[in-house]
Design a protein that fits this description.
single chain, 194 residues, mainly alpha, Fumarate Reductase Cytochrome B subunit, 7 helices, 0% strand
Length: 194
């Protein structure tokens, strides 16, 4: 098991995490309102909030990837697969299904790495499909690429549910498996120390 240190979650990574947390919540709530608006809701305001947080999420993602590769605390290697990850993939699945012991995986196990690497890809898909939904007459190429507005809308909606699934699993595992890391990510303390 990986022993948590302050270098694992530097301040920049924690701030980026907070921005993602707030953005995903706001995008989810406003997205569901846009998908199924209720009576008396000012849709222009809801859409504007949705797009503002979409830009915040996108910019934060770009800056976080840049920081992971070129920043002071380069951490991109922690997210890349290695031979040990491939060897441990089955053991990690067994562990999560309560069928085996926790394998030695390092800071992130292969399933975590899969989820973390999927997030930027899902973010790009959401951005592209969101642009097509927002201005279908302007982004005709996007609409046509996806085979029409219905498929475009369904893809955007499906990816939203993938985000929600990843976040729910992430929250569950953060609170049950890595509470010290979660405490440090949220409050900047390890086992009561600053």
């Amino acid at each position: 098991m990986h022993v948590l240190t302050a270098e694992d979650h530097p301040l920049f990574a924690r701030l980026s995490h907070y921005i993602n947390l707030i953005s995903i919540i706001v995008l989810g709530v406003t997205g569901f309102i846009i998908h199924s608006p209720g009576p008396g809701i000012g849709m222009d305001n809801v859409r504007n909030i949705h797009f503002i947080f979409a830009y915040i999420f996108l910019i934060n993602g770009i800056v976080r990837v840049y920081y992971a590769i070129f920043g002071k605390n380069k951490d991109y290697k922690q997210f890349l697969f290695n031979k040990k990850d491939y060897a441990n993939f089955g053991a990690v699945i067994k562990y999560y299904l309560f069928l085996g012991p926790h394998p030695d995986t390092g800071m992130y196990n292969p399933l975590q790495k899969s989820a973390y690497l999927a997030l930027p890809i899902l973010g790009i898909i959401q951005t592209i499909t969101g642009l097509g939904l927002y201005r279908p007459a302007v982004f005709v190429g996007i609409v046509n690429f996806f085979g029409g507005l219905e498929i475009l809308r369904s893809t955007h909606y499906l990816v939203t549910w993938l985000f929600i699934a990843i976040v729910i699993v992430h929250l569950y595992l953060a609170l049950t498996e890595t509470f010290d890391a979660t405490k440090y990510m949220l409050f900047g303390t390890i086992r009561g120390k600053k």
